[in-house]
Design brief:
Radius of gyration: 20 Å
Distance between the termini: 45 Å
Structural class: alpha/beta
CATH class of the largest domain: Alpha Beta
Bound molecules: nicotinamide-adenine-dinucleotide
Largest sheet: 6 strands, parallel
Strand content: 5-15%
Strand order of the largest sheet: 3-2-1-4-5-6
Length: 298
Amino acid sequence: MRFGYIGLGNMGGAIAKRMILKHNIVVFDLSESLRSEFSKLGAVAATSIAEVGNSADVVFLCLPTSNEVKEVILGKNGLTSSMKSGVICDMTTGDPVITRKIAEELPNNITLIDAPVSGGPAGATAGTLAIMVGGSDNAVGLAIPALESVSPNIFRTGNVGTAQVMKLANNMLNATNRLATFEALSLAVKNGIDPDLCAEILSKSSGRNYATDITLPRFVLPNDEPVQGFTLGLMHKDIRQAAELGIATGVTLPVINTAREVYHSAVNERGGNEDVNEVIRHYERGSTIKLAGSGKKQ
Ligand code: NAD
């Protein structure tokens, strides 16, 4: 089985680096410097998307949104211009409605499956990512050897698009827990609690979540610039997709829609390329105290 990987950014790059340890893969990204980095790591760096389609039976994608995924698959010089048969495995946190439409437009001998991940670049490097997989058994079976080289935590969710639904449900919680945690921190610290002690108590109490356990102690409290490797723009995209899915399928989502407004104003103020933790500035202004970097430096 020949494997290909397109989209070598923060997340896709970290996943592809694990695949390289076990498989020969052909890779492509718009960024020439990423192509050259992967060539040095032992991958074959293609010069076009069509070249990947020509050289691989299973092509993995990890692109910003489903718009890029559609272009890479169905665009003029996209995968379908050169791929004779095989599987396209979309690891993007995409829009399940667009994903299902792309799947319907594919020629019969090419099958689309979705396999979004959770755990970030650090989880990919550690081999602990959660990989959610939607699609037919045959197509998933062809992708599994490469996915197993990334992480053993593989969950089948159903037909194509269902994995992205599940991923959006997860990121709703990631987004809202992050805001609620920053909000709790601002109240506690403004009223005299030591920031590091606050994080320690929260992570042993009933408000415990990923933001109390990881985001506060490792990224926000020790650093004035709390970079975690995921952008504000991508987080806003994920919760907008969740909100739109709620509208399309008749589900009210009051908490995520409030959170969406907070992230939206953070994107407007700071720009979509800033780290997701920059949303803490909203709570620093709201409490008139410094929160990022207020703990012990590590
Ligand atoms: P990123 O911006 O770091 O990387 C995207 C890469 O895609 C870039 O290298 C870019 O050059 C490349 N690209 C864009 N359009 C392309 C095209 N037409 N052809 C070839 N390459 C193209 O983004 P990321 O953080 O890697 O995120 C990718 C996806 O993974 C997003 O959907 C994101 O929501 C999801 N995700 C990210 C994380 C994270 O922590 N970073 C975690 C889970 C899921």
